[in-house]
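Same chain as my last thread, 360 residues:
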Amino acid sequence: MSPTSASTGGPAGAGSAATSRQRRLLRRRAEAGAWQGPLRRYDILKEGTIALVVVVVLVAVLSILFSSPDVPPVTLQAWSSAQPIGFTQIALSELNGTSTSATYGPPYNHQSGSVQYLYGVSIQRAIGVTDPINPANDFVVDPLRTVSGQPQLTAALARYDAASAATRHAWETAYGTALDKAHMVLGQLVVPPGNYGPVATMLSSFLSLARSGGLDAALVQHSPFYVTNYTDPILFLGDSATAQDSSYWNQIVSAQKMLGNQWGMMNETGSWPGQPWLWLYTMWYQVPPMNHSSNGDVEVIAIMTVLSLGLVFVPFIPGLRDLPRYIPIHRLIWKDYYRTFGSASTGTTVEGSGPPADAV
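reply #2:
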């Protein structure tokens, strides 16, 4: 078959032009040939070494000029020292089971406070409780049991363990009312007199434990081979976010521009740029109905799942996969290449394009 017969016609039934598949085959054959164009000596080790040296120098200079963007970690010790009364209020909510963690739902417990649905289906419910947490015991009572040398605290814990649920609830409710009138005296939390049972002693000792830094260590779950689990302290700290706008956690998050309405996932600490590739994910939280929906998280996940699958299956979606042919921007970028090899698809031979097209 000659170039002429491929482009102007051939045997009966062959058609007057090459099919799309034939054109691709012709181009593939042309591109597979040995390179006939100009050559240039290239030392990849030399180029790599130069690039490495330049990057190292830039990193060192920029680090000296701008310092590190890291900030000290947020700890329970810092929180309890800055806002002792607010910290104790959250500790009480953990103890009486009213905190966000205590009412969250799967994967931490069987409650429903933070369970989300999409068309009546909850992925959380389907997966179930995979990381069971009891905030009263895990966040408050168990850390207090690690404190030694305090007979008064030991007696208070024993009395609390022996009390009925109704009695505990009465103590906690009374103490919660008194906390609204609490104040600090010489570093000690002072509340008006009342029938608080052992709760006052427990939470006073709990505040002291947190301010000493012992609570941060007590809540970290250590696993074999140097692995640590920070779930408990993170949940405890996160529970303060719903207390009030002036809470310790909200003040820090707002100052760092990390609130949800500040497109928080796009920011690192301070004004440093963060993860710009997450803009599409965080954008959906800024528009209705996700910006005020109680199921906003699962709705955003559903949207991003559909978009991600669409990206994965672009090569199989008719019309969408053909956009590069309709909008041939790549031909402008690779214009030198197509100027040299572009005519291979028409069945002609060009210099440096490999075997002649009519050899196919």
